[in-house]
Task: structure prediction
Amino acid sequence: MTHRFLIFVIAGGFLLNAGWTAAQDVPQKGKGIGPITEVKLGPIDVQMAQAGGKTFDTKCAVCHSLDAKKLGPPLRDVARGRAPEWIMNLLLNVNEMLANDPEASKLRSQYPLRMTDQQLKQDEARQILEYLRQAAQGQAGK
Result:
């Protein structure tokens, strides 16, 4: 009986550990798939938004505008309809998001070109998020 109990405990521990590891790879509802699990938002940081606007102009504006469809969707209202974590995960983890996130896959099917990985750093993605938050409040133009 002791031997069976020991096998049960070891097997149970293995399964719990495997389940815990796998759970880390499962997207949190509405937050997407990637390194960002939580973003704490406060008032819009104007300097961060300005930096994000510059990055948006150089890395995103070829395919996106705020108000019109281009090769990708218009982005003025994206910060109203998506979790900040989802936006940042899409920016930082494009390929996996397009392959495995249902909402990103759905958007991908509506546009002619696949979003390219711009190799953004986390601080650049956060700045773009701030720019998009500012745009959603009507404070950014383009």
In short: The CA atoms of residues 31 and 85 lie 5 Å apart. The longest helix spans residues 2-25. Residues 29-136 form a domain with the Cytochrome Bc1 Complex; Chain D, domain 2 fold (CATH 1.10.760.10).
